[in-house]
Structure formats: C-alpha cells, structure tokens
Amino acid sequence: PTHTEITSEEEIRRVVPVIRRLVEEVDVPISIDNYKSDVAHASLEAGAVMVNDVWGLKKDPDLAAVVAEHSAALILMHNQLGTEYMDLIQDVKTSLLESVGNALSAGVNGSRIILDPGFGFGKTPKHNLEVLRRLGELAEMGYPLLVGSSRKSTIGLVLDLPVQERLEGTAATVAVAICNGANIVRVHDVKVMARIAKMTDAIV
To answer: In CA terms, which of 75, 120, 172, 176 is 20 to 30 Å from 154?
Structure first.
C-alpha cells in the first residue's frame, strides 16, 4: 500500500544481491514477491526457486515462461482493481483458474503451482472474512492454498487495534485458514504462528 513504482532495473539492483546472500546463508527455499518477468528471471538466476505473483499473471503474462524455464514454483494470487463481484467465491475461482490455465499453457509444472485467494487484495473486509470462511470451496480446485492474513487491516478493523497489536487476531485467521484447507500460511510472527499451525494441524 502507498508504494512508489520503481523500474525493473532498480528492483533487480535491490533484490538480486539480497537473494545471493540469502542463498549462501540459509538452507531454506527463497521466494521472490514479484510480477515482472525480467525481475523474476534475474531473481531465479540468483538462486530463488519460487515466484509469488500478486497479479496471477495478469500484469505480465511472460512471467509464466520464465518460471517454466527455471522449473520454479509459482504462487498465483487473486487480485483485481476495485471490489465489485457478482459472486465472490465463484469469481475468485474463475480468475484463479484462468491464471492456472495461463501458467500451464506456458509450461509451468502443475505440481509446482500454489494458489492464494488474495486476502486484503481487491476485497472489502467483509469479503476477506467470507474468503476465510469459505476457503474449502477454493481448496476443491485441487491446488495447494496459501493464505496471507498476518496483521492485515481487516483484523485491525474487527478488533479496533493498530498493526503492532494484531497477534491474536492473526492467530485466529491462521487457525481458521488451516481448518478450512490452507496448506501454507504467510506470517510475520513466525515462532508463535508455527506453534499455532502445529496445534491446528494436530486437531484437523
């Protein structure tokens, strides 16, 4: 939110050295949050193994071919301009399936596709809560689901709390997301949320 657009060249200059250093220092997969094919190419060359496209290939369709070339994983997130829907969940499913089709057509390995319903993107707070509540309907598409609700404004609105006080609200969304079919949760407070995820997994 409120970001300033930068060029691909500037983005590459900023992220590639960080990726190279991370690959040397940590033994976990590195993901680049990006929707530009040239930045994705540079990032994957530097050692990233996953691209998280918050526009689901709608901004730069060439991104899919880059991912396929590197045999990388691809997160396709639902996003749109505005918050108008005919049928929220069906519209999200239709959009995500279009993104999946574009990825598969470009040669992306279907087993490396992850879907993100886009909590907080192109949706009202009411929409975000409905997505969490009906996440199981999106799980029926057959792809792993990622949910990124951590500290987001919907939680702040429900609890009337600033961003630094949304730990419990985030915990609730993480637990409900896992119960309703999420395979991956993206969080800020890793230690606490890992415990919550482990406990929720044990229950479900």
So the answer is: 75
Residue among 203, 146, 153 at smallest CA distance from 31: 146
Which residue type is seen at 193?
Answer: M
pLDDT of residue 177: 98
Q: CA quadruple 178, 183, 189, 193: dihedral positive or negative? A: positive
Q: Which of 118, 107, 115, 110 is nearest to 64 (CA)?
A: 107
Question: Are 100 and 113 a contacting pair, CB within 8 Å?
Answer: yes
**Average pLDDT for 162-186:** 98
- Residue 3: what pLDDT? 83
Question: Could you write out the three-class secondary structure of 147-175?
Answer: ECCCCCHHHHHHHCCCHHHCHHHHHHHHH
- CB under 8 Å to 81, separation ≥6 — which residues? 122
32 contact partners, CB below 8 Å, separation of at least 6:
15, 19, 39, 40, 43, 44, 48, 50, 51, 52
Single pTM value for the model: 0.95
- The rounded distance, in Å, linking the Cα atoms of 197 and 60 is 33
Q: Which residues are catalytic?
A: 152, 186
CA-CA-CA-CA dihedral for 112, 41, 78, 98, to nearest 10: -70
Question: Rounded to whole angstroms, what are the CA distances from 131 to 22, 84, 93, 107, 116?
Answer: 33, 14, 11, 29, 11
